[in-house]
Design goal:
The structure is a homotrimer. Chain A contains no helices and 31 strands. By secondary structure, the first copy, chain A, is mainly β. Chain A folds into two domains: 108 residues, UDP N-Acetylglucosamine Acyltransferase, domain 1 (3 Solenoid); 93 residues, Hexapeptide repeat proteins (UDP N-Acetylglucosamine Acyltransferase, domain 1, 3 Solenoid). The termini of chain A are far apart. At the A-B interface, loops of A face β23 of B. Chains A, B, C: GO terms for molecular function: transferase activity. Chains A, B, C: InterPro entries: Hexapep, Hexapep_transf_CS, Trans_hexapeptide_repeat, Trimer_LpxA-like_sf.
C-alpha cells in the first residue's frame, strides 16, 4: 500500500501503484500515474497526465544499464510539469524544475535548482550538475555529463555513438564543463569535451574537444575569438 | 461549477475544474483535463489526454510575465489534438489547428486559421498572425512575432537570449514579417528581423537582420539570389 | 463491444472504444485510450497515458490521404512506451519498439524489429523498413521511405515540400536506401535520395542526391572521403 499524508492534494483519476512514498504538502494533478516504489519529497508539485517511476525496458536491440538505484526519487521543492515521463533509478534533487512534456530516463542524476525545459529529453546514465539550464526541446544523449552552471540552448542535439549502431562501441556522450554555454540548435559529437565557460555559437557543429574560456562557432566549429 | 451544454460530447475520465465555459457542439476526448476558468467556443474539437488552461509557474529561476488575461480562450471551430498542453492567459482564435503533443505557453495569441504542428512549442509572450503554419517540432521562442502567412518549417529553432542566461537582458525573440518562409531546421538568433516574403534555406543559421524579398542560406546565412 | 482475453493485464482508467481486438498476454498501462477498431496482437506491451487508433483529421488547410486501411494494427511482440500517439490506418509490425512521447501518423508501415525513438515523429504516408533505428526527437516527414537497416540519428530533420506551402506541389519526402546512416541534427531536403550504406555527418545539410557508399558532411554537404 501507498500512504498519502493528509496535507497532500491529489487530482482526479490519479493512480498510485504500491510502495509509493509521498512527503508533506505535495500537490499532484489529475490523471497522473505514479508507479511502484516512487519516492516524492516534501513540497513537490506534479502536473496532470504524467507517468513517473517507469521501469526501464529491456529489449534485444536496446542496451542494458546496471542500475545503482531501482526507484525514482524526487526531492523536496521540485516542480514537475504536465505530460512528463520519468524513469525509475533516477534522482531529481531539490528545487529542480521539469517542464511539460519533458522526458528523463533511468540512472540520471539532476542537481539542485537545475531546469529541464519543456519537451527536452535526458537519456540514461547522464549526470546534470547544479544550477544547469537545459532549454526547450534540447536533447541530452546517454552517458553525458554537465557540470554545474551549464546552459544548453533550445534544440541542442548530442550523440553518443560514433559508429551509429554499426559496431559494438563504448557509448560516450559529451562532457561539458562548469559554466559552458551551448547556443541553440548546435550539434555535439560523441565524447566531445567542452571547456569551462566556453561559448558555442548557435547552429555550430562541434567535432573536436574545445578548451576552457573559448568562443567557437561554425560548421565545423572554429575559434572566433582569437 | 462548470455548465456543459447538452450538445457537447465528452469522453470518459475527462476532468472539468470550476468556472469552465463550453460552447455548443464541442467534442472532447477521454482523460483530458480542462482547468479552472477555461473558455471553449462553439464547434471546438479537443483530443484525449490533453491539459488545457494551465496556470503559469512562478519560479525563482524563471522569469515572470505580466499577464493581460488570466484564462485560456479557445475560439470557435478550432481543433486541438491529443496530449496537448496549453496555458491560461492565451487566446487561440477561430479555426486554428493544434497538432498532437504540441505545447503553447501563457500570454500567446494565435490568429485565425493558423496551424501549430505536432510536437511544436510556442513559448510565452509570442504573437502568431493569421494563416501561419508552424510545422512539426518547430520551436517558437518567447517574445517572438510572426506576422500573417508566415511558414515555419519543421524543426526550426529560435532563441531570445543573446547572453544565454549570463546577464540580465531584455529577452527578444525573432520578428518575422508577412509571408516569410523559414526552411527546416534553420536557426534564428535573438531579435533577428526577417523581411516580408523572404525565404531562408533549410539548415541556415541567421545571425543578422534580413530585408524583404530576399533568399538566404548557409552558416552564417548569406544572400544567394543576387 | 470490445472483447478482452483473460490473459490481458489492463491498468486503471484505461478506455476501450468499440470493436477493439486484443491478443493474448497483452499488458496495457493506466489512463491509456484505445480508440475504435484498433487491433493489438499477442504479447504487445503498451504504456500509460497513450492515445492509439486516432482517426485522421480532415481540415481545409491540411492535405487529405487516401487510406488503404482504416484501423491501427499493432503486431505481436511490439512494445509501445508512455504518452504515445498513433493514428488509424497504420501498421506497426512485429517486435517494434516505440519510445515514450513518440507520435506516428496515418498510412505508415513500420517493419519488424525497428525502433522509433523517444519523442520522434513519423508523418503520414511513410514506409519504414525492417531493423531501422529512428533516434530520439528525429523527424520523419510525410511521404518518406527508409529501406531496411537505416539509422536516423537524434534530432535529424527532413522536409517534403520544396515550395513551403506556396504552390500546389506533389509532396515528396527523402528516400533513404538500405543501411544508410544519418548523423544527428542533419537536415534533408525534399525528395533527396541517399544511397546504400552512405554516411551523412552530424549537422550536414543535404541538398542533392547522394550515391551509394559515400561519406558526406558539411553545409551544403560534400563528399569527404575521396
Amino acid at each position: 500500500m501507498s500512504t498519502i499524508p493528509e496535507s497532500v492534494k491529489v487530482g482526479q483519476n490519479t493512480v498510485f501503484e504500491k510502495n509509493v512514498t509521498i512527503g508533506e504538502n505535495v500537490v499532484i494533478g489529475h490523471n497522473t500515474v505514479i508507479l511502484e516504489g516512487t519516492e516524492i519529497g516534501d513540497n513537490v508539485t506534479i502536473g496532470s497526465n504524467c507517468v513517473l517511476g517507469i521501469k526501464p525496458n529491456v529489449s534485444a536491440r536496446m542496451r542494458k544499464t546496471e542500475q545503482k538505484k531501482d526507484k525514482l526519487i524526487i526531492e523536496s521543492g521540485t516542480r514537475i510539469g504536465h505530460l512528463v515521463s520519468i524513469y525509475a533509478g533516477t534522482q531529481i534533487s531539490q528545487n529542480v524544475f521539469v517542464g511539460d512534456q519533458a522526458s528523463i530516463r533511468e540512472n540520471v542524476r539532476i542537481g539542485n535548482t537545475s531546469v529541464v525545459g519543456r519537451s527536452a529529453v535526458v537519456e540514461l546514465n547522464s549526470t546534470i550538475g547544479r544550477a544547469c539550464t537545459i532549454q526547450t526541446l534540447a536533447y541530452i544523449t546517454g552517458d553525458t555529463t554537465l557540470e554545474d552552471d551549464v546552459f544548453i540552448g533550445p534544440c541542442v542535439s548530442m550523440s553518443n555513438d560514433k559508429y551509429m549502431g554499426a559496431k559494438p562501441y563504448e557509448l560516450e556522450g559529451p562532457f561539458i564543463k562548469k559554466g559552458a554555454k551551448i547556443g541553440n540548435n548546435a550539434s555535439l559529437l560523441p565524447g566531445i569535451i567542452i571547456g569551462q565557460e566556453t561559448i558555442v555559437g548557435a547552429g555550430s557543429v562541434v567535432t573536436k574537444d574545445v578548451g576552457d574560456y573559448k568562443v567557437i562557432a561554425g560548421v565545423p566549429s572554429k575559434d572566433i575569438h582569437s
